Amino acid sequence: MPAPPPPGAAPAGTHRATDVAAPGRPARIWVPAGLAALAVAIRLVPVLRGGGLTGLDTHDPYVYYAGAVALLSGRLPYRDFLFLHPPGILLGLGPFAAAGGLLGDPAGMAAARVGFMVVGAANVVLIHRLLRPAGSLAAAVGAGLYAVWLPSAYVERTVRLEGLATLLLLLSLLFVQRLGRTSRPLAVAVTAGGLLGLAAMVKLWGLAPGAVVLAWVLWQHGLRPAAAALAGLAATGLAMMLPFAWGSPNWFDDLVIDQLGRDRSTVGLPSRLLGILGMGPLPPPWALPALVAGCLLTAAALAVAWVTPQGRLPALLALGCGLVVLASPSWYGHYPAFVAAPLCLVYGTATGWVAARLPTVARRSSLTGVGALVVATAALQVVQEHGREFPGTRLEAVLQTLPGCVTSDRPAATLVLGNRLRANLAARCEVVIDLVGHRVVRERHAPDGASTAQDHTRFVTDYLASGPTAVLVLSLADFTPAQRNLIESWPVLADLGRVEVRATG
């Protein structure tokens, strides 16, 4: 195996023409800082234009935050409440949940959302740092694309698994990048593997990029660093999972079996590819030509990245993560973010390689075109609205006057934004934060769709009636006529527009 190049030297077979006019140290700081600020703006402004930081968002973010609050109160996932994900997100949200105990959970949730926007900015900086060996242009393009990339911007506007898992993966890649130029390769490999283990404990899909990175380390650096990285991955994964699995007989079912047992989504391959390529919202007349162009461009970028030593691992990661997303039995709008960082690393590497071989005028024109694309994508996103307003302050005022346990058809969101979750936990109320997760479990155990729906609405009705007060947000269309009549017979204590507070008995 050839000896690694000295620090700062270009790897064999690369061209450093992109660094002929390499920026000085101030530019190396201000370029990623500016792109990070752009990333925060793209994530924050649509939220402020929509529901605001205390507005109503999609289902999962409130489940994660509510689970973190429950964990701080001494309730364990998989044992005391249903949680269909690894525990990493609960631990990551611990500081925000603790802040919510002092400032109120609406403030804690708002802080968590801003914190995950900052995670997105950190991912931009890490991509820039990872691409610097490929040239300043490659670094700027890759980081700039990630800053405005629709799948990553979408998930990092709130609390989701993918943003945090991406941060841990990129940190791991930084250590992998150092393996060829460090005097302590085993320590660096253990750290890289440990970060991969943490990423898998945030989103179990992280085992796929972890396997790719381990195979890469074995191929490029030999058995001992690969074994050290595997040891780091296993050690962090076990250290994080064992305390929760111990005494929780359902943990494996919740994490793996129930997820794999989900019904196959009807979203087909073309729509999934459009989502992965950041073009999911395109209307039908534009979708097909955009998909063809995007696939051809991405295939070319993967081929170009493969001819550069620093581009091969991102290319393998993009292919591996992409296959996981395409093969997933279910499909949600946040799944494409799992592939976002590897793809942006590939695009950045390919752009740097191609630009290094273009005449100066063509290189400048290409850079102008990429810059215009980034600016246009940013402009299209900041005029969007994300989420909707929620009468959390008024709901809190109503619930403060009511004794006993409060239930809801969307418990995590209403109990967090209505600042009632901790009172429920203190009163030892039943911990139900993920009604969608309960439906997923029933789908596995009762594959007959009609009976599953009936069982689930019966469970929800019984849960709503288990406390003296119920908060209703969702439509009752899925309930049976008898269940609807029962719920609608409960007296209305407060009508807050889309939110009703009813006395159950």
Structure description:
There is one protein chain. The chain has 2 domains: 22-52 and 84-382, no CATH class; 392-503, no CATH class. It is built from 23 helices and 4 strands. The protein has helices at residues 25-49, 59-72, 88-92, 94-103, 105-131, 136-148, 150-155, 161-178, 185-200, 207-221, 223-245, 251-260, 269-276, 284-306, 312-327, 337-355, 360-382, 392-399, 411-417, 421-426, 435-445, 449-464, 481-489, and strands at residues 406-408, 469-472, 492-495, 500-503. Strands 1-2-4-3 form a 4-stranded mixed β-sheet, covered by helices on one side. Helix 5 (105-131) packs parallel to helix 8 and helix 10 packs antiparallel against helix 11. 46% of the residues are buried.
Features:
2 domains; four-stranded mixed sheet; 23 helices; 505 residues; globular; disordered N terminus; mainly alpha
**How large is the radius of gyration?**
24 Å
Mean pLDDT: 89
Helix content: 55-70%
**How would you spell out the order of helices and strands?**
HHHHHHHHHHHHHHHHHHEHHHHEHEE
The amount of beta strand, in percent, is under 5%
Please outline the major beta sheet: 4 strands, mixed
Arrangement of strands in the largest sheet = 1-2-4-3
Give the N-to-C terminal Cα separation: 76 Å
Shape: globular
Give the total of domains.
2
Q: Supply the helix-strand structural class.
A: mainly alpha
Give the low-confidence spans: 1-22
Number of helices: 23
User: How many runs of DSSP E, i.e. beta strands?
Assistant: 4
Note the topology.
Elements: H1 25-49, H2 59-72, H3 88-92, H4 94-103, H5 105-131, H6 136-148, H7 150-155, H8 161-178, H9 185-200, H10 207-221, H11 223-245, H12 251-260, H13 269-276, H14 284-306, H15 312-327, H16 337-355, H17 360-382, H18 392-399, E1 406-408, H19 411-417, H20 421-426, H21 435-445, H22 449-464, E2 469-472, H23 481-489, E3 492-495, E4 500-503
Parallel strand pairs: 1-2
Antiparallel strand pairs: 2-4, 3-4
Helix pairs in contact: 1-5, 1-6, 2-4, 2-19, 4-5, 5-6, 5-8, 5-16, 6-16, 6-17, 8-9, 9-10, 9-11, 10-11, 10-15, 14-15, 14-16, 15-16, 21-22
